[in-house]
Design goal:
Distance between the termini: 11 Å
Helix content: over 70%
Order of helices and strands: HHHHHHEEEHHHHEHHHH
Radius of gyration: 21 Å
Shape: globular
Structural class: mainly alpha
Number of helices: 14
CATH topology: ABC transporter involved in vitamin B12 uptake, BtuC
CATH class: Mainly Alpha
Largest sheet: 2 strands, antiparallel
Strand order of the largest sheet: 1-4
Number of domains: 1
Strand content: under 5%
Length: about 325
Amino acid sequence: MDLRKLCKLFMQKKQLMMLIAAFVFLSLPFIITNSYVLHVCITVCIYIVLTLSLNLVTGYAGQLVLGHAAFYGIGAYAGALMMLHFHINFFWALVLSALLTGMSGFLLGLPALRLRGDYLAIVTLGFGEIVRLIFVNWKTVTRGPAGLPGIPAPELLGVSLGGRTAFYYMALLLAVCTIFFMTRLINSGIGMAMQTVKHDEVAAEAIGIKPRKYKIMAFVMASAIAGLMGCFYGAYLSYISPTAFVYNTSMTILTMAVLGGLGSIMGSVLGAGLLVVLPELLRFLNDYRMLIFGALMVFMMIYKPEGFWGASHRRRNIYKTNAYGDEGDGDGATS
């Protein structure tokens, strides 16, 4: 009984913390007057969504992807071209970019997900490089290395939403919606099936789960989310170029997912936040900041390989939630 009371208190404190966090994030543009700090906050939201999308396919479905920036870039270029040449509204471009990128993920996933482990990683790495070369060399469409300038700002009911404050709220909304979607998904039957496939494909097949089906679903959803964020990124900067979607970008997103904790939503949020903010905080150590940053990453991998918020934290939270939920069953539910 005492454990249940403690768990109930924990859940109440958690809800209170969420309300406080919501208030802080919503009032942030009015608290912060520095435009660059607000830009960093928007970048954090962008990388939270990208890290969550990669974590879906790598952390929950267990498929190592090394070319995630390709889908980010496809969404960015698709959205930019639709807005520039077809004058499609930004919000429709978001949806269409997600659909197009999801289709790209499906077409790649059909043959690629027959492979596993390192072989799949090499295929996705090659796909990322092919997409980058298309961006560079298809000059009649992408303008090559010169990129696409003049991407129009979003408009809603005839009102331009081009200010940094408006983009902050849009980025925050996209991040919150992605967290909500991921939370619902991984606790659903589909999410449980994905995690089963990750841990043991043979056992999954034995209980009627088709591994390839759920791996492709994860791949398509992760691609669509990355493409949606790519469209947002292009509208935010009003300019995109191939240099934003290189192999290093894929590695940055993967590093955020691994250091935060694979298979953890909170880990993705922490990993993205820390790896965006930390390099900015170390700028005063201009000549040594990347050295310190690299040393911290090595330290984490040696002494805390499961990340900042890995599977052990997630299990503890599940136990607490279940214990709290049992209280509603009455005294007869005690074990």
